[in-house]
Design goal:
The protein has 584 residues and is α+β, with helices and mostly antiparallel strands. Helix content is 34%, strand content 20%. The protein has 20 helices and 20 strands. It has helices at residues 10-21, 29-49, 86-92, 99-106, 112-121, 189-199, 246-257, 339-344, 346-368, 372-376, 388-391, 396-414, 419-425, 440-445, 462-466, 472-477, 489-493, 520-532, 534-543, 573-581; strands at residues 4-7, 64-69, 74-79, 133-141, 150-155, 160-166, 172-179, 207-215, 220-229, 265-271, 277-283, 299-304, 307-310, 325-330, 428-430, 433-438, 454-458, 482-484, 498-499, 502-506. Strand 8 (207-215) and strand 9 form a beta hairpin. Helix 9 runs parallel beside helix 13 and helix 12 (396-414) runs antiparallel to helix 13. The protein is elongated and about 115 Å long. The structure holds adenosine-5'-diphosphate (ADP) and magnesium ion (MG). Residues 33, 36-37, 125 line the site of magnesium ion. Adenosine-5'-diphosphate (ADP) is lined by residues 33, 37-38, 40-41, 79, 81-84, 92-93, 98, 125-126, 173.
Length: 584
C-alpha cells in the first residue's frame, strides 16, 4: 500500500513544537486526554448506532484498553468506538478544530518559558501524546467501513505525518505511543493505574488493563492475558437521586473529603439552563483545622463530562463557603480549561451563583428543622406534623453553626447579593440567651414597642459582654441586647446596617437613642443633668483633650458612674483592640 505524506496545519506544527520543546510539569495529563478521546469515540458510536445498530458489529460492549510493552517501549490506548476513516484521520489529527486549543494558541506569547507554563495549564488533546512520545502511530477503522478500509497514521511530531490504508479487523482506534527515553516511568502497571484512577476513574466505560502477577522464578511481574477494569466507572453524581442510597452518598463524601465523619447534609441536582451542570454538594459535620486560612483550598472538584479536570476549583464557590465539599460536572466547559480561564468564564460564574444559592438553601432548611418542637406548634395554633425525616435534622443547624458560623459571617462583606439570606442564618447569644441561638428574626419578634433598633454589643467574651456598663439601661428597660463575642462580628456587622427594615445599633457607639423608650420624666432628667453638669463636662473635656473626643451626660448608665463609647462610624473599642493585637 502506498504511503502519503501530509503537512500539519501551521498552527498544529507550532503547537507540536511547543509540546515537544517544553519542560512540562504535568506530563501525565496526556493519558487523561487520550482516554477521554477514546471515551468520546465510544459515545459517538453509541449515538450513531441509535439509528443503525449494525454499527456495533459483533462487539456491543464498549471499552477502553490501556496496554504497554516494556521491550518495544510502547504504550497503547485502544477503544472500540466510532473509529476514523483515512480522510477523517487526516482532517482530525492534522488540523485544529476545537475552540479550546485555538484559544490556547491565541494566548501564546512567543516567550518559551511563559508558553511552557501555559501548556501546563491546558491540555492540548491528542497532541499531548507528544509530551511523552517521539513517535505516535494511530491505527483505526471506522464503524461501518470494511476491514480493508482501515488507516494507519504516523508522525514524529514535527512538520508532517504519513497515512496509509491498512486492513484492520477490529472497529475503533489504537493510539500507539513510542515513548521517549525519559518517559519510561509510564511502562508500569502501577503508574498507569494510578493516573487512570486520578483522572479517569469516573469515565462511564470500563478502562481495562492486563493483570499482572509476580513470577518468583523470574523475579518480576508478568502480564497475564486476563484484563480487568481499573476504574470504578461509576460517576455517582451522574446517576439519578432515587437510585442512590444515603449510605452511598455518605461513602462518596468520605472518599471525596478524606473525612471520617458522615456529612451533615448534601444536595444533588442537575441544573439546566444557560449553563448545564450537575452539582453534588456536602456540608461537613466538622470544621477542618485550617478553616481560618483564607488561602485554604476550595473543596470542589471539577469534572467536564465525567473527566476529572481539577481539585480545589476555587472559582466555583465564594471564599466564605470554602468549606463546602463536592463535585461539579459541567457539560459546557472545554476539557482543557485552566484555572485562569475559569476565573473569566461566564459559565463558571453561573455555576458559582448556582452553588451559592444551593448551599444557602440547604442551610435555611437545616435552620428551619433545628428545633422541631417549635415547628409542631405554629403561631396559628395549628399543629404541624413533623416527619421522622425532619426530626432527624434536629440540632444539625446548631452543630453546623458552632463549627462554621464564624466563616459564614464573612459572607456579609463578600456576597452582597445574598446578604439578606446570610443575615437570616446568623445566630447570637443575647441578654436573654447564653446559647448562641438567637436569630435576628427571633430578636425582632421580641422587640419592645417603640424600640427603634436591634441592639448589640461586641466584647472579647460572654462574661465581659454581659457585665459591660453600657448594658445597664437596656437591662433596666428589659430590652434584649445581642452579645457578640466572635472575632469577626465587629467587621461582619459593619456590613449589615439593617435587618428586615430595622437598623442594627451598637450600644457602644455614639449617643444611643432610646427614643420613645424613655419616658417623659427620664428625658427631662437627662436634659436637666446636661445643664447642671455643663461646667464639669467642660472641665473634663479640657483635661481629656487628647484622649477623648467628647464627654457627654448619658442615659445609658444606671449604676456605673462613667463608660467609654466611640463615635458612630469609628472603629469600636473591641475592633481597635483586635487591630492592635494584629499589629496595625
Ligand atoms: P477534541 O477531543 O477536543 O476534539 P483532540 O485533539 O483530543 O480534540 O482530538 C481531535 C479529534 O481527533 C477528535 O475530535 C476526534 O475527531 C479525533 N479523535 C481523536 N482520538 C480519537 C479516537 N480515539 N477515536 C476517534 N476519533 C478520535
Ligand atoms: Mg480530546
Amino acid at each position: 500500500m502506498s504511503k502519503h505524506t501530509h503537512s500539519f496545519q501551521a498552527e498544529v506544527a507550532q503547537l507540536l513544537h511547543l509540546v515537544t520543546h517544553s519542560l512540562y510539569s504535568n506530563k501525565e495529563i496526556f493519558l487523561r486526554e487520550l482516554v477521554s478521546n477514546a471515551s468520546d469515540a465510544c459515545d459517538k458510536l453509541r449515538f450513531e448506532a441509535l439509528n443503525d445498530s449494525s454499527l456495533f458489529e459483533d462487539a456491543p460492549n464498549l471499552e477502553v484498553r490501556v496496554a504497554f510493552d516494556k521491550d518495544a517501549k510502547t504504550l497503547t490506548i485502544t477503544d472500540n468506538g466510532i473509529g476514523m476513516s483515512e480522510g477523517e484521520a487526516i482532517d482530525h489529527l492534522g488540523t485544529i478544530a476545537k475552540s479550546g486549543t485555538k484559544d490556547f494558541m491565541s494566548r501564546l506569547s512567543g516567550d518559551q518559558k511563559k508558553d511552557a507554563q501555559l501548556i501546563g495549564q491546558f491540555g492540548v488533546g491528542f497532541y499531548s501524546g507528544f509530551i511523552v512520545a517521539d513517535k505516535i502511530t494511530v491505527e483505526s477503522r471506522r464503524a461501518g467501513l470494511k476491514p480493508e478500509e482501515g488507516v494507519r497514521w504516523v508522525s514524529g511530531g514535527t512538520g508532517d505525518f504519513e497515512t496509509e490504508t491498512i486492513t484492520r479487523a477490529a472497529r475503533g482506534t489504537s493510539v500507539i505511543l513510542h515513548l521517549r527515553e525519559d518517559a519510561n516511568e509510564y511502562l508500569s502497571h502501577w503508574k498507569l493505574k494510578q493516573i487512570i484512577g486520578k483522572y479517569s476513574d469516573h469515565i462511564s466505560l470500563p478502562i481495562l488493563m492486563q493483570k499482572e502477577e509476580w513470577e518468583k522464578d523470574k523475579g518480576e511481574y508478568i502480564q497475564k492475558d486476563e484484563w480487568e477494569a481499573v476504574n470504578s466507572a461509576s460517576a455517582l453524581w451522574t446517576r439519578s437521586k432515587k437510585d442512590i442510597s444515603d449510605e452511598q452518598y455518605a461513602e462518596f463524601y468520605k472518599n471525596l473529603s478524606y473525612d471520617q465523619d458522615a456529612p451533615l447534609a448534601w444536595s444533588h441536582n442537575r441544573v439546566e439552563g444557560s449553563s448545564e451542570y450537575t452539582q453534588l454538594l456536602y456540608i461537613p459535620a466538622k470544621a477542618p483545622h485550617d478553616l481560618w486560612n483564607r488561602d485554604r483550598k476550595a473543596g470542589i472538584k471539577l469534572y467536564v463530562k465525567r473527566v476529572f479536570i481539577m481539585d480545589e476549583a476555587e472559582a466555583l464557590m465564594p471564599a466564605y463557603l470554602r468549606w463546602v465539599k463536592g463535585v461539579v460536572d459541567s457539560a459546557d466547559l472545554p476539557l482543557n480549561v485552566s484555572r485562569e480561564l475559569l476565573q473569566e468564564s461566564r459559565d463558571v460564574r453561573a455555576i458559582r451563583e448556582g452553588n451559592t444559592r444551593r448551599v444557602l438553601a440547604m442551610l435555611e432548611d437545616l435552620a428551619k428543622k433545628d428545633k422541631p418542637a417549635e415547628i409542631t406548634e405554629g403561631a396559628d395554633g395549628v399543629t404541624d406534623v413533623v416527619s421522622e425525616e425532619d426530626k432527624a435534622q434536629a440540632g444539625k443547624y446548631s452543630q453546623f453553626y458552632a463549627e462554621f458560623g464564624s466563616v459564614l459571617k464573612e459572607g456579609l462583606g463578600e456576597d452582597f447579593a445574598n446578604r439578606e439570606k446570610i443575615a437570616k442564618l446568623l445566630r447570637f447569644a443575647s441578654t436573654s440567651s447564653d446559647a448562641v441561638a438567637v436569630s435576628l428574626a427571633d430578636y425582632k419578634a421580641r422587640m419592645k414597642e417603640g424600640q427603634a433598633a436591634i441592639y448589640f454589643i461586641t466584647a472579647d467574651n460572654l462574661a465581659a459582654a454581659k457585665h459591660s456598663p453600657q448594658l445597664e439601661v437596656f437591662r433596666k428597660k428589659g430590652i434584649e441586647v445581642l452579645l457578640m463575642t466572635d472575632r469577626v462580628d465587629e467587621w461582619a456587622l459593619s456590613h449589615l446596617h439593617e435587618f428586615d427594615g430595622t437598623p442594627l445599633q451598637s450600644v457602644a457607639k455614639g449617643a444611643v437613642d432610646l427614643g420613645s423608650l424613655l419616658d417623659e420624666e427620664e428625658k427631662k432628667a437627662a436634659e436637666a443633668a446636661a445643664e447642671t453638669f455643663k461646667p464639669l463636662l467642660d472641665k473634663l473635656k479640657e483635661s481629656l483633650k487628647d484622649k477623648a473626643k467628647d464627654v457627654r451626660v448619658t442615659t445609658r448608665l444606671v449604676d456605673s458612674p462613667a463608660c467609654l463609647v466611640v463615635e458612630d462610624g469609628d472603629v469600636s473599642n473591641q475592633l481597635a483592640r483586635m487591630l492592635k493585637a494584629a499589629g496595625q
